[in-house]
Amino acid sequence: MAWNEPGNGQRDPWGRNRQTGNKPGLEDMLKQIRNRLGKLGGGAGGIFTIVLALLLAWLLISSYTIVDARQAGVVLRFGQYSRTLQPGFHLKLPAPVETVTKVGTTEIRSVSDKVRMLTSDENIISVDFNVQYQVSDARKYLFSLAGPPEDTLRQAAEAAVRTVVGANVMDNILTSQGADQAATPASASTAALATASSVAAPVTPALTAAAAQTRDTLQQQTREILQATLNEYDAGLLVTDVSFQNVAPPQEVKDAFDDVNAAREDKQGTENNARAYASQVVPVARGDASRISAEAQGYAAQRVAIATGDAARFNLILKEYKAAPDVTRRRLWLETVEDVMSNNPKVLDGSGGRNMIYLPLDRATGKDVPGVGAVMQSAANDALAGKEKQP
């Protein structure tokens, strides 16, 4: 008999007797648990109890679901669509009778791609586009498309971009791209090409706004075409934004585009110089024309006024002449002689027939004052006459 088997003696190798008491040891406790489990599963009733307990736990766990506020739950009953659950706590049949697939409906997702295409003027450009979208219908998103929704969206977006780009000329597309793109080292040549293509007119805030409007129009058209295509596919997707991130000619034809753009820059420089010269010369010419016209109008008004005054004076003189012809005739003669004599130099001879020396003092002073020359000439004559009388 082994040393640790139960018995009345209960001896151990060290010759000490074990203490018996009310508290079982660890080994006894393990034996009791093992015995109870053996009794529970030993018969048919024990196995049924275990299965029933596991079944109840499984029913309890799989009979409800919680849908997040940013999600929608699609319920499948035996693999067929049953209903769509809104955010919150919901009861359902346990799996595999009903399963719930949760789809994020507020998450902003994006798809990007780069394609080459022809414009309406038969030029090749490379377009990098980005599409942002949301799931508007979780059921359609999961079951309406044969393949992954992202692949379908990418193909539909490429078709929409080709439709819009193919309906516009290259200058419009490059101008819309260059209006808001920052010139980074990697995209400096692209920005230069876009700028050179947009110099067909002077760069003004109005043209910048027009370029931005063109860009927004192209992106809006692309978004509308893409959304219409997805609606036809019944994809359950809502396009929130479409943007052209990089639009540039391919590297294979970049040199040719550089030559064309250099020629456009030279043409634009010449046109700008001509506009500057015109803006400088035309206002001066318009000012001269306005001044000459104003002077002509003033001269015409002056001549008309003088003629009117002369006619009125002549009528007054005629009236006086009819009343007293001799007096009027003599008065007119005196006035005429006065006008003639007032405008001509006069010399008074007071020498009494002796020699007279004429000194044009009025001309020497540089001033033609009526009467002054005559007075000075008379004084000079008097002085000469005084000298002649001296012995």
Question: Can you give me a brief rundown of this structure?
Answer:
Helices cover 56% and strands 16% of the residues.
Name some characteristics of this structure:
391 residues; alpha+beta; Tetrahydropterin Synthase, Chain A; 3-stranded antiparallel β-sheet; 11 helices; disordered C terminus
Q: Give the % helix.
A: 55-70%
Continuous helix count: 11
Question: What structural category do the secondary elements indicate?
Answer: alpha+beta
Order of helices and strands: HHEEEEEEEHHHHHEHHHH
Tell me the CATH topology of the domain at 109-249: Tetrahydropterin Synthase, Chain A
- End-to-end span in angstroms? 203 Å
Number of strands: 8
Question: What is the mean pLDDT?
Answer: 76
